[in-house]
């Protein structure tokens, strides 16, 4: 009798296992699937505003590309131009549930160096500058630098060819202009390359340089570049963010040539202000959008190296010269071919471009 009871008990136990255990296994599988389906959360914090038609707008395009192609949960936050708000905003974002926090410009370096070491569970990407990895514990920070001097060399060479040409808006003087937002290393890296490129074509070309002291003052930018055009410049290079929109306005008013920056500024204005756009022969693109996209792609592949800085140049497509319909319409083919030749020489190391950051 006891033996019969034991057999019945074992049969019942096996039956229970067959019913219950597969259910438990399915629950574990569901949990794993939920974890795998959890979206990466990425936030872009701008220490400025959108609408500059160059730097910050480019960064935002990168976020839009990331959201579209990688299915991340993304958000762009405009922090405005009050520096007292940037660090508290970054601290608040770090205390939130974002996986990756992206910021840019040298003005955010101190905040990242202070906040990132306190939030080791977060990852930070800072672009257009780098942090001090030797002084601070920043193994969760990846820095993106751009070799803007390389792209500026090319547009400097182009400006020199244009000012000496018989193009309709060129005059007989060998004078070109440069507008910088501020007198700081990253802007001077543009300037160094621009001057070197111009003098590579002709050492006698004169480069007029002005600094606005601001990246969000188009009126000041226009005033400074109008003065450059009055001093004989027939083309000027905008390296001033939103301030540089004033340069484009000056080119339109004076019927002179302009070179845009960061984004393809011809494309950005051709519909809203075609008369302004037609004066923009090209733009020296700092591909913030592509560099942010590249970083997230590497992260998704497990290949993004935090705790280091990486410099992206012509070879890595971190920067470039806008090749659009207006460039092909305005710039003679021999000039465009020369720019392509110089680009390849820089990539191959035949031309070494000077930098404001030292060798």
Structural overview:
- This protein has 359 residues and is α/β, with parallel strands linked by helices.
- The protein folds into two domains: 41-146, Rossmann fold, CATH 3.40.50; 148-285 and 323-348, Response regulator (Rossmann fold, 3-Layer(aba) Sandwich), CATH 3.40.50.2300.
- It has helices at residues 2-37, 55-70, 86-94, 109-115, 148-163, 185-201, 218-230, 245-254, 265-269, 274-277, 288-300, 325-330, 333-348, and strands at 41-46, 73-78, 100-104, 123-127, 141-146, 175-180, 206-211, 235-239, 257-261, 280-286, 308-312, 319-321.
- The strands form two sheets. The protein has a six-stranded parallel beta sheet with strand order 2-1-3-4-5-11, sandwiched between helices. A six-stranded mixed beta sheet has the order 7-6-8-9-10-12, with helices on both faces.
- The N and C termini lie far apart (93 Å).
- The model is unreliable at 1-35 (pLDDT under 50).
Give the tags.
359 residues, six-stranded parallel beta sheet, six-stranded mixed beta sheet, Rossmann fold, alpha/beta, 13 helices
Topology (elements, then pairings):
Elements: H1 2-37, E1 41-46, H2 55-70, E2 73-78, H3 86-94, E3 100-104, H4 109-115, E4 123-127, E5 141-146, H5 148-163, E6 175-180, H6 185-201, E7 206-211, H7 218-230, E8 235-239, H8 245-254, E9 257-261, H9 265-269, H10 274-277, E10 280-286, H11 288-300, E11 308-312, E12 319-321, H12 325-330, H13 333-348
Parallel strand pairs: 1-2, 1-3, 3-4, 4-5, 5-11, 6-7, 6-8, 8-9, 9-10
Antiparallel strand pairs: 10-12
Helix pairs in contact: 2-11, 5-6, 5-13, 7-8
């Amino acid at each position: 009798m006891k033996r019969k009871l034991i057999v019945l008990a074992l049969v019942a136990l096996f039956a229970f296992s067959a019913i219950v255990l597969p259910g438990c296994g399915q629950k574990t599988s569901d949990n794993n699937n939920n974890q795998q389906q959890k979206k990466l959360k990425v936030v872009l914090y701008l220490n400025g505003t959108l609408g500059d038609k160059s730097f910050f707008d480019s960064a935002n395009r990168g976020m839009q590309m990331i959201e579209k192609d990688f299915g991340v949960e993304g958000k762009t936050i405009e922090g405005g131009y009050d520096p007292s708000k940037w660090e508290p905003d970054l601290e608040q974002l770090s205390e939130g549930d974002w996986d990756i926090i992206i910021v840019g410009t040298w003005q955010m370096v101190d905040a990242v160096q202070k906040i990132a070491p306190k939030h080791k569970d977060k990852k930070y990407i800072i672009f257009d500058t780098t942090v001090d990895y030797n002084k601070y514990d920043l193994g969760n920070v990846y820095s993106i630098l751009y070799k803007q001097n390389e792209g500026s060399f090319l547009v400097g060479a182009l400006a020199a060819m244009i000012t000496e040409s018989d193009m309709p808006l060129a005059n007989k003087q060998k004078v070109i202009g440069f507008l910088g937002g501020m007198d700081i290393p990253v802007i001077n890296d543009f300037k160094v390359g621009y001057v070197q490129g111009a003098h590579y074509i002709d050492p006698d070309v004169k480069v007029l340089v002005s600094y606005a002291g601001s990246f969000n003052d188009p009126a000041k930018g226009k005033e400074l570049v109008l003065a450059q055009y009055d001093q004989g410049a027939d083309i000027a290079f905008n390296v001033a963010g939103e301030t540089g929109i004033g340069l484009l306005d000056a080119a339109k008013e004076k019927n002179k040539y302009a070179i845009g920056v960061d984004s393809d500024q011809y494309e950005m204005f051709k519909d809203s202000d075609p008369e302004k756009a037609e004066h923009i022969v090209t733009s020296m693109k700092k591909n913030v959008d592509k560099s942010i996209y590249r970083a997230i792609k590497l992260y998704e592949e497990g290949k993004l190296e935090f705790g280091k800085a990486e410099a992206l140049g012509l070879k890595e497509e971190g920067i470039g010269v806008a090749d659009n319909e207006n460039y092909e319409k305005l710039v003679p083919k021999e000039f465009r071919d020369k720019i392509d030749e110089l680009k390849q020489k820089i990539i191959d190391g035949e031309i070494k471009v000077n930098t404001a950051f030292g060798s």
